[in-house]
Amino acid sequence: MSTTPLLQQPLFSSALPRSANLTDALLAPAAGLLSAGDAQTLRAAFVRRAVREGHAAAGTIRVDGYLLRRGADPDLRAMRSFEAFSWSPFTARRMVGLAAVRTCVHGTRRTPVQAVGAVIDELCRQGADPRERSGSLAAWLASTTPGVRALVHAEAVTWATQLLGALDWARLGRSASVGGPDEWWDHRPAALTLRGRSEVRIRLGAVGGEARGGRALFSVLSGRPGKNSHAELGLSALVSVLAAPTGPPPVRVAGWWPESGRALIVPVDGALLEATMTSVLDVVEAARGQGGS
Amino acid sequence: MLRGDVARRPAVDPGLSGGLRAWLEDGVATIGERSESIRVTPNDLSGPWPDGGCHVNDSLALGALVGVAFRQFLSAGALSDPMSEGLAALACLGRRDIVGFIESMSGEAKAALAGELRRQLALMAERWPRLLPGWLPRTHERLTIPLGGGSVVLSGTLDLVLGAPSSGRASVCMVNVRSGEQQSWHRTALGFLALLETLRSGAAPFRLATYYSTTGELDVQDVSDQVLTEAVELTIDVVARLSAVEVVRAA
To answer: Which chain B residues touch A151 with a CB distance below 8 Å?
Structure first.
C-alpha cells in the first residue's frame, strides 16, 4: 500500500479563468492507483477497527461529511442539537442545482436560470401527482407558496452558476458525471453507515501500467476549508473504496468552496484513507459517548 | 448601466488579488491565534451599533422583506401578495425573529408596512427590466475570506451579481439593495464586498451599484484600485478595533 504522506494542495494560481486550473488539477496524470488488493486489505482493517471500537447496542451511527465537519468542533454536545431535516430554499438548492447543471452540461438548456426553472416546473408536476411520496422535494415544492418557490429558484440558480463556472466542462466532456446517487457503505456488525457525497465524478484514463482507469471526485462545500476538510474529502474516497473495492478507485478528491474561492486537491492513497478512518472512528466514538447520532 | 460596454472593461491585473491578500495578511498578523475568529461584515464598517447590538425594528423588518422580495421578483416577477409571500419566505430562511416581530405589530402598523412594501415593489417592477439569463444573474451570493489562518474572517453577501467568471478581463457587476436612505458608508460597504470578490475570484469586479428601493435610485460606481486599497486600509482598522473590543471584554 502506498505510504505517500498526505498532501493538501491549495490552488493559489493567479491565472484566469480559474476553472482551467481546477480542471487541469483534476485531469492530471495520477502517480499511482490503489490496487484491488490494497482496497481489500484496507477494508478488512477498517472493519476490524470499527467492530472492535463499536457498540452495536447503542444503535447505528451514520457518518457523513457534515458530521465529520462538526467532529472538529470540541463542543460535541452541539451534535445533539440538530433540528430535524426540513426542506427550505437552502436545503433544496443542491438537488435542484445539480439537475439544472446536468441539463446545461448536456446542452439541453443554455443557462442556469432556464435550467433551474425547467427543473422546478418538472418537480412541481411530479409533486402534484397523488402517488408522490410525502416529504419528497417534489411534494414540498408542489405544496409550498409561489414566493418560497421563487426563493428556491434563486438559491438553486446561484448554486448551479457557481458549479458551472468552477470547471471547464468542454474539456471534461463525457467523462464527467454530474450528481448521481450518494455512495453508501453499511456495516451492521459495527453498527456503522458511511455516506460519501460528490457533486461530480470524473472517469480518468488508464493509470500507469494498469488497464483500469481511476476516478476523480469533486465536491462543492459551503463556507471555508476547516480543520477536518481533508477528512471530509477523504470520506468520499473511503466510502468509494469500501463500497466497491474492485471498481475504478478514486485517484484524487477535490473540494471546492465557492464562498471563499478555495480548492483543495487531495491525492487518494493509503495515508489519506488511514487518516480518514481514524477521523471517522473518532467521530463515532464521540457520538456514541453522547448517546447516539 | 450594469453591464456597460464589454470592450471598455479593464483587463485584470493578475498580481492584484495576491498583493491585496498579502497586505491584509500583514495587517492582521498581530492579532495572533484566537479561540474564536474575529468576523468582519459590511455592517461593521459603519461603526459600532449604538446600543451594542442589531435588534429587529421597523426598518430592519422592512429591509428583510424588501431583500426577499427583490429575489422573488427577479426569479418570478411580481407576486400577488408580497407581504404574506415575504413572511413565508423569511420563515423558510430561518428568520423567525423578524417574522415574530412583524406578527406582533398592531394591525395598523402591519398595514402600513405592507403598503410600503407594495409601493417599493411597484417601483422595483418599474425600474428593473427582466434580466437576461445570459448575464448569469445570481442573488444572495455569500463571500467568506479567512485571514491569519482563520483568526479573522471577512464575510458578506451580495444581493445580485451579474457576469461570468473572469477570463482575463473584468466581467462582474455587483448590486446591493438598500431599503433605507442613501448613506456614504453604503459605498464603503460595497468597496469592502468588491475587495472580498477580488480575493475570492482573483479578478476585481468592474462595477458596483446600490439600488435604493425607497426611491428607485441606482447609485453606480466603477471599481478602481483606489476603491480596493481603501477597503484594505479600512478592513485592517476595523479588525484592530474589533480585536481591541475583544481584549477589553476578555479583561
So the answer is: 68, 71-72, 75, 89, 92-93
The β-bridge relationship of strands A183-187 and A192-196 is: antiparallel
Asked if B29 and B82 sit in the same domain, the reply is no
Number of H helices and number of E strands within chain B?
Answer: 7, 6
Q: pLDDT of A98-133, one tens digit each? A: 999 999 999 888 899 999 999 999 999 999 999 999
Question: Count of CB contacts below 8 A, A vs B?
Answer: 128
B68 to chain A, any CB pair closer than 8 A? The answer is: yes
Q: Are residues B137 and B122 in the same domain?
A: no
Are A259 and B143 in contact (CB < 8 Å)?
yes
Query: To which H or E segment does residue B61 belong?
Result: helix B58-76
Q: Domain count of chain B?
A: 2
Domain residue limits at B115: 58-127
- pTM, to two decimals: 0.91
Query: In this structure, what CATH number is given to the domain that contains residue B162?
Result: 3.90.320
Q: What is the percentage of chain A residues whose pLDDT exceeds 70?
A: 86
Structural domain contains residue B44: yes
B35 shares contact with chain A (CB less than 8 Å): no
Q: Do B163 and B196 have their domain in common?
A: yes
Residues of B with CB below 8 A from A146's CB?
76, 79, 85
Looking at the structure, tell me whether residues B34 and B78 fall in a common domain: no
Answer whether B79 sits within 8 Å of A150, measured CB to CB. yes
Same-domain status, B77 and B161: no
pLDDT value for A125:
97
The number of residues in chain B equals 251
Of B88, B94, B167, the CB nearest to A145: B88
Domain final residue, candidates B127, B149, B183: B127
User: So what's the ipTM on this one?
Assistant: 0.93
Measured in angstroms, the CA of A153 and the nearest CA of chain B are apart by 6
B111 shares a domain with B64: yes
Q: For the sheet with A192-196, list strands across it.
A: A61-63, A192-196, A183-187
Do residues B45 and B66 share a domain?
Answer: no
**Chain B interface mutation, best of A13, A124, A158, highest count of B Cβ atoms under 10 Å:** A158
**Tens digit of pLDDT for each residue in B95-149?**
999 999 999 999 999 999 999 999 999 999 999 988 999 999 999 999 999 999 8
What is the length of chain A?
293
pLDDT recorded at residue A5: 35
Nearest Cα residue in chain A from B153: A224
Q: Which helix (H) or strand (E) holds B60?
A: helix B58-76
Residue B132 CB coordination number (10 Å): 12
